[in-house]
TrEMBL record:
It holds the Pfam family NAD_binding_2. Residues 161-285 form the NADPH-dependent reductive aminase-like C-terminal domain. It comes from the Bacteria. SUPFAM superfamilies: NAD(P)-binding Rossmann-fold domains. Gene3D superfamilies: N-(1-d-carboxylethyl)-l-norvaline Dehydrogenase, domain 2, NAD(P)-binding Rossmann-like Domain. It comes from Streptomyces litchfieldiae. Keywords: Oxidoreductase. This is NAD(P)-binding domain-containing protein. The keyword Oxidoreductase applies. Belongs to the HIBADH-related family. Coiled coil: none annotated. Residues 6-150 form the 6-phosphogluconate dehydrogenase NADP-binding domain. The keyword Nucleotide-binding does not apply.
Amino acid sequence: SGKQPVTVIGLGPMGQAMAGTLLDHGHPVTVWNRTASRANALAARGALVARSAEEAVAAHELVVLSLTDYAAMYDVLEPASAALAGRVLVNLGSDTPERTRAGARWAAERGAVLLSGGVTVPPSGIGKPESSTFYSGPRAAFEAHRTTLGVLTGTDYRGEDPGLAALHYQIGMVMFWTSMLAYWQALALGRANGLTAADVLPHAVGTMTSMPGFLRFYAERVDAGHHAGDVDRLAMGLASAEHVLHTNADAGVDTTLPETVVALFRRGMAAGHAADSFSSLVELLTGPTA
Ligand code: NDP
């Protein structure tokens, strides 16, 4: 076909979507998965199924890994070590920046180059150019393969440090998990008061839709270290956060999350920020830096 051949190792929902998308675009694809049956549907669509991870790695220069984490990469690739020299490993499993950097060193010691990726969409977003994946690692390897990787999702190269893709991924995930927990808390409070998720939805969407304005307003001030209490004061924020806590407690709803919010506001007060903006909590959260 003239299209670059690709090995895909790891056929969970993400790996299956990636291998399928590459096949749809005419790329020869070799696959391998620990649980062999997960390759059946791809084989029917034209993928070659390797008999071992080593055979899969040996098949093509470009090896996409879609595994749970970096520990799984070692489990899969240790037995394939003999085939690793000269390979470009594109690890699209998520993990911490530190574990990603260790993975890049591990690959280099075996003569391979590791590009790390953080995919920001679920399997349904694979194959859509408007989707995005953070990449980091050696620029030359990324540039050499960006066209093929661009078949999977849009590509957002963050730099040579292999930990950068994971860092940007985790910056998004810390917001995703806490925001979704905030939504579950709101739905629990609604339910305890006879409201369904459908009842709460328009209000919840409205609240989330207002957030970008807050993000933009505070970004510039935080970067300038400007936490003046001219638009909001931490003391006012604490009173409001306590109302949230008591509303949940009165309804018999779990208070772990609102208690944590109140505790952080109180620590900011104790640190002397009562008259500052609640953005001063960024300083508290950052902690003492070296
Ligand atoms: P799954 O957990 O469904 O798939 C994991 C894959 O890793 C399977 O192929 C599994 O093999 C393999 N695996 C795990 N541990 C080992 C091991 N010790 N040895 C060999 N193989 C192993 O995950 P997904 O496909 O959903 O996701 C893959 C990666 O993509 C994850 O890192 C995830 O965080 C990330 N991601 C996922 C998103 C999603 O919406 N699903 C969104 C963005 C990122 P087996 O089939 O044998 O179990």
